[in-house]
Amino acid sequence: MKKILLLLITIPIFVIGCSSEANLVTYDNEELTRIFKNEFVQPKHSEELNEESSLPKLPTKLPFKPDQVDFSQPPPHYEEGSLFLIFDFLSKGESYAHLQLQVVNMETEYDTDFEAIKIGDIEGFYYSESPDLMLLNWVEEEIHYDLKYVASSSDKYISKEEFITIAESFK
């Protein structure tokens, strides 16, 4: 009886502890998508960017509930019709965390050695030099996604698997 009881207690703890989404929260990206369409796509009048299929995907899972979400348009020197956007998801307070998404429709180059990984069936590249800094990039439908996560304390750290889960959540 003790073995069965121990087994019944141990299995749920093991399953919860091994879950790759234990620290992630669901994020409703519809409002951010609406703002993006109204403030960037419509003013540009670019046929390429007005097509629904060429709009960038955004995350539906985040490593924290954001206190602030910022959206930056491209610098003025980018040609009209270029896609260069930065989305910042911020968690403020004593335990600061920052998830930054950069979306471009041009090649990006890095001086860092990335590890090849899979994001669903898409090839991606992962880099981390410490638990408080992670980078992940991939190309989907000719759009380059660069995801960067910075955490100021261990209670905001996420695993490599959780970071990949965030990338897989893009819709």
From TrEMBL:
Superkingdom classification of source: Bacteria
Protein name: DUF4367 domain-containing protein
